């Protein structure tokens, strides 16, 4: 049995999910002769101790203690502002790092991290889990196989049912950086093209506290790709019908929608149409359950040298460049060119 010890830092909203997924992935990988052990830490010690106890994982009192305990991979699921120092800590210790998106609060803060990782030949996977989602994978396959022809329009949608806590939003960098960055990443990944310009608008018709911390609850960006193709990326925190993540790709030969199934969070207005008729997803954890588990399994495989890095920090920063441009456009009211400064 090959043994892999993962050290998880941060067991908040997404960290708890990763902790559970690591336990599930361990069971799946056992059949392939791989065993995964989890150790974890969080500054909220009592909560972390109880998460650890529930999973039979070891609790350690700090990141330093976690790293010193001899882990093979560091999983970072703390708030975005802490990512740079924790990525550095993992890379400096010579261990592989999985870090939740984004690399840092913005591109300017990400570039020194990229340089550091490159100078140390660090192995860092960023958590853009949609790259593992079966629907997005099928859309990419179909596009690359020529089944859609050339793409004339792309429409990406990401809607939460309810907003995360305002305290989280205050430090999230804004709706485009926190939420739509997943769409910017997947659009680059799927089309193999760069987004070169963004024009964004937003609105605040929900809790005024969201506006007070400088964010919007709903936004839409018109994006232009380097071959002139146009698309839209929209997001909202108030989608009562359910957690709705879709991508419509319309091409000269055929069209596909990712996320259109019985659980899609909407109803048809047409008489007699009962599709979709299932219970909608309520959270991102539910919607991307399979993808989050697959990305954690991929991290274990990356540590063992069994696969290429599925999402490098360079990939993630490229998506962040688009998110930065969208936030700038939202603030200025004019279209913004995406900066392509070399990292
Ligand atoms: N990939 C996705 O779909 C997705 C979804 C949600 C969040 N995220 C990302 O995950 C990150 C965390 O988001 P969240 O919603 O889980 O946040 P959260 O605030 O719920 O949880 C963060 C946890 O980290 C702990 N923490 C903070 N600093 C720490 C430190 N220095 N050492 C140890 N513990 C520390 C906090 O106590 C908290 O428990 C963010 O960067 C966010 O962008 C990604």
Automatic annotation (TrEMBL):
Keywords annotated in UniProt: NAD, Oxidoreductase
A single MF term (Gene Ontology): oxidoreductase activity
Domain Gfo/Idh/MocA-like oxidoreductase N-terminal: 7-128
Coiled-coil features, chain-numbered ranges: none
InterPro entries cross-referenced by the UniProt entry: Gfo/Idh/MocA-like_OxRdtase_N, GFO_IDH_MocA-like_dom, NAD(P)-bd_dom_sf
PANTHER family (UniProt xref): BINDING ROSSMANN FOLD OXIDOREDUCTASE, PUTATIVE (AFU_ORTHOLOGUE AFUA_2G10240)-RELATED, NAD(P)-BINDING ROSSMANN-FOLD SUPERFAMILY PROTEIN-RELATED
Protein family per UniProt: Belongs to the Gfo/Idh/MocA family.
Protein name per the record: Dehydrogenase
